[in-house]
Write a structure and sequence with these properties.
With about 150 residues, the chain is an all-alpha fold. Helices cover about 80% and strands about 0% of the residues. It is globular, with a radius of gyration of 16 Å. It starts with a helix and ends with a helix.
């Protein structure tokens, strides 16, 4: 059974589970959206991840993540909020795989999900840093870094 066949039939439940995590996190930007808006964004993220799975091209998801990062950065969304949504989706995907995938496929499937979403999170971070260096931003909170020093 390929990973797409494990995820696609359960995509609605995966999105609902991820949306519940996002809601519980109390992310200011996402709290301002209606619940369907949050689910729509998570579904788009999941569909981009599935496109990478189905085509064998992780660059598709990374490109989608870069586009999201650009839009959210310009909207003033903090990087922590955006990465929390990626983590929520990844967790929901993992939980689905553990429940549905054949035992012999679980490790490889989780690795593939982690690799694709990890590449997307890397792209988000790179995009935020690149844009932050080009202008003053409130999208990156550097106070934690300064406190650690």
């Amino acid at each position: 059974m390929n990973l797409s066949d494990v995820i696609r039939p359960n995509l609605d439940n995966i999105v609902v589970a991820a949306a519940a995590v996002v809601d519980a996190a109390g992310l200011p930007h996402y709290m301002s959206l209606d619940p369907q808006g949050v689910k729509l964004r998570l579904r788009e993220l999941a569909e981009a991840m599935l496109m990478s799975v189905e085509t064998g091209e992780p660059v598709h998801f990374a490109s989608h993540a870069q586009s999201i990062a650009h839009d959210r950065f310009l909207a003033g969304v903090h990087i922590e909020e955006l990465l929390t949504t990626f983590n929520a989706l990844e967790t929901a995907l993992w939980e689905n795989v553990v429940k549905v995938a054949p035992t012999e496929d679980v490790v490889a499937d989780l690795g593939l999900i982690g690799s694709i979403i990890g590449a997307g999170k890397d792209q988000v971070a790179s995009s935020y840093v690149e844009m932050a260096t080009q202008r003053h931003t409130h999208g990156l909170d550097m106070s934690h870094l300064h406190e650690a020093l």
